[in-house]
Amino acid sequence: MPLARITVTVPHGVLKDADRRARALDRSRSWVVAEALRRYLAGPTDLEPAAGASARVAEVPAAPYAIPPEEIESARLRHLASELALTPAERLARAEELGQFAFAQQRRTPRRQVISFTSYEDFERWKTARRIGV
After folding, report:
1. Alpha-carbon gap, residue 59 to 118, rounded angstroms
2. How do residues 92-131 score in pLDDT, each as one tens digit?
3. Cα 3 from Cα 20, distance rounded (Å)
4. Could you give the CA distance from residue 20 to residue 14 in angstroms, rounded to a whole number?
């Protein structure tokens, strides 16, 4: 059976519950989600919209800016003018400093990823590529 990859955004608590269920059943998170979809699609559900009701999900309206857009534009133009007043060497040095600062501020969190392979040879190629940095 061919597989397809999807991206789904769920509340953190739902994800924790799905992971807990996957561990209890000794299955993958993907299996738990796929099984939940199979069961939902197999029968009627009370989650379906009533006749005549809209099936669209209402989006949360964006919060208005606290600062008027004209002021933001003016500040950006002033910033651009001050940056262009610098020499190319000064701009490069500033960019390097900002890059180092941004890298230092990044929070390193462990990746939560499940990788599967169709064969052991695929795994070996992947592992070898990771070792040599490809």
Report:
1. 39
2. 999 999 999 988 888 777 777 788 888 888 999 988 988 8
3. 24
4. 10
Per the model's pLDDT, the better-predicted residue between 26 and 111 turns out to be 26
Average pLDDT over all residues of the chain: 83
- Type of residue at 17: D
Give 19-84 as a DSSP string.
HHHHHHHT--HHHHHHHHHHHHHHS--TTSPPTT---PPPPPPPPPPSS-HHHHHHHHHHHHHHHH
Domain ranges in the chain? 1-43
What is the crossing angle of helices 12-25 and 29-42, to 10°? 100
Amino acid present at 47? L
6: amino acid identity, one letter:
I
Is it true that domain 1-43 has CATH number 1.10.1220? yes
pLDDT value at position 105?
Answer: 84
Alpha carbon distance 96, 98 (integer Å): 5
Structure tokens at 133: 């940095």
pTM across the whole model: 0.35
**How far is residue 27's CA from residue 116's CA, in Å, rounded to a whole number?**
13
